[in-house]
Amino acid sequence: MIRRTSPAVAVALAATMALVGCSAPKAPSTSPSESATSKALSTGLPKPTRTPAGSSAAPAAPTAPISAPATSTVATAAVSSVAVASSPGGPTTTTLPNPQTNGSPLVFQVVGKQDGWVHVALAQRPNGSTGWVRSSAVTLATTSYALVATTESNSLVLYRDGAAQRTFRVATGTGGTPTPHGSFFLTELLAPTNAGYGPYAYGLSAFSDVLNSFGGGPGQIGLHGTEDASSIGTAASHGCIRMQNDDISVLAKLLPLGTPIQIR
After folding, report:
1. Which helix (H) or strand (E) holds 73?
2. In a 10 Å sphere around its CB, with 0-12 CB exposed, 13-18 middle and 19+ buried, how is residue 200 labelled?
3. Which ranges in the chain are annotated with CATH 2.30.30.40?
4. Does domain 15-21+34-41+144-263 bear CATH number 1.10.10.10?
């Protein structure tokens, strides 16, 4: 899970982050204290538009019927702060900084539009929260990529144009700290510098259903690498989705922020 730091650190676009609590609890256990220093990779990211899928092979998708959107729309903040309203023209419910406190650009997944307004999914509790932002505050682009994670099979499928491209084995949350189900999106890309979380970590708009706080943070779910390769394919985390380091490196080179991820 992701722990945020003070806004002052993020001014230099080198936010100090802690990716905490993505290993399974042990008995007896104490509160995890492992922390990480990470950089928000706010530059050099693929733009949220159609891009090549690279040379990845395309093994078969899981047998259970699933689907992913052929394209989805991403809204990227174009101003220094974005006011979110409960309805078009309604009162402001929250104001979000751009860039985010970790230096990453502020992005949203678009779920609808209305004259002069964009309906967006929000990275906040409760999961599934939405709001309205002014069209003038964001720029819109499309991505043809999507992810579908299945906790029962501990698998993650990469889609492009609605077609499965590659299936990855992953680790997900334990029975006591499950990975939340729902429709989410990638909110940030980090480069952890401590051991345990691999070369890359995406923050998701998802938050733990059972941990309202963890390691000093709000219990945000991550998609990241791991140094514990033996955990892949098992229920082993506090809710995060772990991947082999080579696999998360593939995704980090492909997926723009705002890419949708369905967890089921």
Report:
1. strand 72-77
2. buried
3. 72-143
4. no
- Residue in 22, 119, 181, 224 annotated catalytic: 224
Distance CA 36, CA 197 (A): 9
Contact status, residue 168 vs residue 156, Cβ threshold 8 Å: yes
Tokens of 39: 């950089």
Which CATH superfamily groups domain 72-143? SH3 Domains (2.30.30.40)
Q: What gap in Å lies between CA 106 and CA 40, rounded to an integer?
A: 12
Peptide bond between residue 88 and the one before it cis (omega within 30 degrees of 0): no
Domain with CATH 2.40.440.10 in the chain: 15-21+34-41+144-263
Cα 145 off chain centre by: 14
**Structural tokens at position 3:** 């722990």
3-class state of residue 85 by DSSP: strand
Q: How confident is the model at residue 202 (pLDDT cuts 50, 70, 90)?
A: very high
- Backbone phi, then psi, for 92, in 5-degree steps? -70, 130
Q: Is 22 a catalytic residue?
A: no
pTM for the model stands at: 0.81
The stretch 212-232 carries a mean pLDDT of: 85
β pairing state of 182-192 and 172-173: unpaired
Res 210 pLDDT > 50: yes
Cβ atoms within 10 A of the Cβ of 146, count? 25
Q: Is the pLDDT of residue 33 over 90?
A: no
Q: How far apart are CA 23 and CA 20, in angstroms?
A: 8
- Per-residue HEC secondary structure of 107-139 comes to EEEEEEEECCEEEEECCCCCCCCEEEEEHHHEE
Residue percentage of the chain with pLDDT more than 70:
72
